[in-house]
Design goal:
about 350 residues, globular, Rossmann fold, 7-stranded parallel sheet, homodimer
Chain lengths: ~350, ~350
């Protein structure tokens, strides 16, 4: 039986093996993904990003439990979790996080957890995550939570894979930290203030709302006695014309507080995407981006097979000696190594 | 007179125009860089990275002044500053920073300052920075300070352009923040604890040293009464075999405290690179990476010119309909669109 068939039949060990193949970008992994792709497209991809210390892992664990409750009369969804930690492997964060998770969700065979701590290239990390999402999707996991450590472009790229993106904040991390989030706020569908039992929760909420105002011109926010009273819906032109005002929700993940409200907001966002055409637009953008990445890699690998290493290294030497510019060298290489 | 010639002759207005061409990736910019490349290779590239709030901009301004003092009997070096802020443009940080800088360094025609706030692709940002560095190098700027807002992969990529990389930390930003720096510490040649008049400076210093220990196995660090007594030199295998123990230095940039010690450490690092062969190794790695990036872009652009848009969009549709996988679609595209 092929690896892909075994994954389709629900074999967890085969799924784990496939994810390792995908992480290592092996030909066996690529062949299996090729076979599995026609079975994808059913899962709701939920990105969860935020700085270290915001309590993302707890939140993801509790959300996994929320989605294990049956929707309507049917069986509960299978839930996949992919935790991506692009920081250096010597922190050991991903492995530790994995163990904490294993303990929290132990015994539930409807949950599959995988973490990835990689220093690989950005493209590699996003592409491995994308492959893992496809494997879980084909294996019947209808909810896939993708957790990343926020702030950098890598996380933004990975978050763009998702249908619904949660940005997690916590009180007391300081205004200076908020600034770095400006970019990531633009991709947020739902903002979560976790650890909301800590002092300063109102300040954090207010900072997020101010940044949303900056990110999305002319929002309507009403304050009364220091409390947020109303936010009217308004267009987000960069998300394709579907109107969705990112709500700001409070949670205390370690106590399970606010989780069901957050889960409900995620389901509302899914419904919104499905009725507004946003779902198709995001699928289109995501798959086209993946196609373009693979195309680039394919072009380079075919060129390398045909190219002469001697000509290449001679041109590198001439660039180093400042005899020709890198631009000129590339033109020479593309024109078949004529020097 | 060509733009390149005018830049070589020291015309600041032409240099500013060229940098705009480079930022916008115009053909005029590329032609000028092609012409200027043979005049590059003289500058010492110094990367300065750190989280928001660490006081990088002040530090960079004071370092610029330090390097404007003549070395030996000669004239003072011309100093270029490139400030890269990959966060969203609506924060306005880069523009504000630019104005503060202009005021600090006003009237010194030996200093050229340029900031770039871009949401462009990662490749684009690193490649624009690389082009700007080459333009300043050719224009005779012997010291080029490249300032980035730390944490993400984008900053690491940009820092890799440099001969000497400074990672700036400040007391009181919290241990959680430190964690995200693990990756960036590996590329640090010099660690700076700025705002060293704040409480907690010893803790920050200790945290950095612990992380250095993790990053570089088996360092020799001696403590006495809570003070660092000695760090012995040790190999950093990933920097090509040249031995350099990153020093940890305290500064209070706003008061100019510790700047000349920091400047001296930078000059020591340059000397170390030049005597150990590290300079050539870094130049080689940098130019080869640039060549590879340009090669990829060139392959894609040539392929696009030859490809059929109808075949491409038909294949995208078939991927979206889950009829074929992205891998299969790319193979079809590379094989000339045979479906």
């Amino acid at each position: 039986m092929s690896l892909a068939t075994s994954v389709l039949e629900g074999n967890r060990l085969s799924l784990a093996r496939l994810l390792t193949h995908i992480e290592n970008d092996t030909s066996e992994g690529r062949a299996a993904l090729d076979e599995l792709f026609v079975h994808t497209g059913q899962a709701h991809l939920i990105g969860v990003t935020g700085a270290p210390g915001t309590g993302k892992s707890s939140l993801v664990n509790h959300l996994a439990r929320y989605f294990r409750k049956p929707e309507g009369a049917g069986a509960p969804s299978k839930v996949g979790i992919i935790a991506v930690d692009p920081s250096s492997p010597f922190t050991g964060g991903a492995i530790l996080g994995d163990r904490v998770r294993m303990r929290d969700l132990a015994g539930d065979t409807g949950v599959f957890i995988r973490s990835m701590a990689s220093r690989g290239s950005l493209g590699g990390l996003a592409s491995a995550t994308s492959g893992m999402v496809q494997a879980l999707d084909a294996a019947g996991y209808r909810i896939i939570l993708i957790e990343t450590v926020g702030a950098g472009q890598a996380e933004v790229d990975i978050a763009r894979l998702a249908h619904t993106t949660l940005v997690v904040e916590a009180p007391g991390l300081g205004d200076e930290i908020q600034a770095i989030k400006a970019g990531i706020l633009e991709i947020a569908d739902i903002l979560v203030v976790n650890k909301a039992d800590r002092p300063g929760v109102e300040n954090t909420e207010r900072a997020l709302l101010s940044m949303l105002q900056l990110a999305h011109p002319a929002p309507r926010i009403y304050w009364h006695d220091g409390q947020l009273m109303r936010i009217e819906s308004q267009p987000q032109p960069d998300r394709g014309g579907d109107f969705w005002q990112p709500p700001v929700l409070r949670t205390v993940a370690t106590e399970g507080v606010g989780i069901s409200e957050l889960g409900d907001a995620i389901l509302r966002h899914r419904e919104h995407l499905q009725t507004s055409g946003g779902w198709e637009r995001r699928e289109h953008a995501r798959l086209q981006a993946e196609l373009d990445t693979l195309l680039k890699a394919g072009l380079v690998s075919r060129w390398q097979k045909a190219a002469s290493p001697a000509v290449y290294s001679d041109l590198v030497d001439r660039v180093l000696a400042r005899q020709i510019s890198p631009w000129r060298a590339v033109e020479m290489l593309l024109d078949g190594g004529r020097t």
